[in-house]
């Protein structure tokens, strides 16, 4: 278990230090224009500068759309995009998988271009502790294999061949996915922003969008704290702030996504193989991956804590975080049971990085039914990197061509009703969505 010294204060200080280092790095890396230089108009305005927003900007610029402005209320990448697990899993329904598969190919392309983004197709091992879980995994094999995904059913003995650190005493079987991957979410977020900027996209930091302006139920522009900008298209990639911004529009735009606390821990250097497969232990709500010679271990809790309960998400969200030892103590014990080597590590670094979750656990994408040319890309459900590449491509296609090349019906924003956008409903609903 974690040492008792890993308390709430220590966690808060740790994440603030991480954020400070990220911010100073970004300030030297990006050519963000001063807020005083805001244009009076743009063809496309994107709010937020996380990995999803940067992917949308990149794909628009790749298709020749240069009159694009990205507005970030803090610094580029200063939301939760930099704090993700970096896991890229394909063992999903084909609608998800096609988006993620494109993301993997895009990230591999960036690495082949010489960018250091930590991209590795190390595969994953998906564990079953019960016969019922194994039946569920077999069913997933049945619909994934015919559509092109390589899946291998493993016995407990086979598991040890791929990952010698896994305790298989209570495991009845597993599925190995060789094409699953990991990458560095911080690096990819930054690289996409740099490439978009090189192709003419303008980024402005420290600019909060306060309201989306409409004319005849169509996007006409935005109101920022620095003044108005007219535009033809608006893309809400505001992450934890997306729902609140949606309400600041006439007519209102419903975006049912709300942040839940989300934890992971990283260990000291343990001299493990950097190509170890990721581990997903569904029955213990735990995942693990190699991370700088040690492990990153995270959890999707069956009863999560809503973040920032009863108030709006603060602009400086890191200052508002708190953690409770009792909440994650049990899950760390699960991780140690599955990977006994964790008992040998020094005090892990714990990060509480809230992320937006949706009522059905699926992304929220597309043009809103209430306001024309108002597009949404949010609700990443704990892993924004996983879908960012493919989502950016799809949203760019939506804007340029009027529709994406892939059928995205399961993710379209029209599936929700007004009741789904109630904060009270969302705070209760996401508690059970995180670990679904």
From TrEMBL:
Q: Which Gene3D superfamilies match?
A: D-Amino Acid Oxidase, subunit A, domain 2 (3.30.9.10), FAD/NAD(P)-binding domain (3.50.50.60)
Pfam families the record matches: DAO, FAO_M
Q: List each copy of the FAD dependent oxidoreductase central domain by range.
A: 401-435
PANTHER family xrefs: PYRUVATE DEHYDROGENASE PHOSPHATASE REGULATORY SUBUNIT, MITOCHONDRIAL, SARCOSINE DEHYDROGENASE-RELATED
Protein name as catalogued: FAD dependent oxidoreductase
CC per GO annotation: mitochondrial matrix
InterPro entries found in the cross-reference section: FAD-dep_OxRdtase (IPR006076), FAD/NAD-bd_sf (IPR036188), FAO_M (IPR032503)
Q: Which domain of life is it from?
A: Eukaryota
What SUPFAM superfamilies does the entry give?
Answer: FAD-linked reductases, C-terminal domain, FAD/NAD(P)-binding domain
Residues annotated as domain FAD dependent oxidoreductase: 43-398
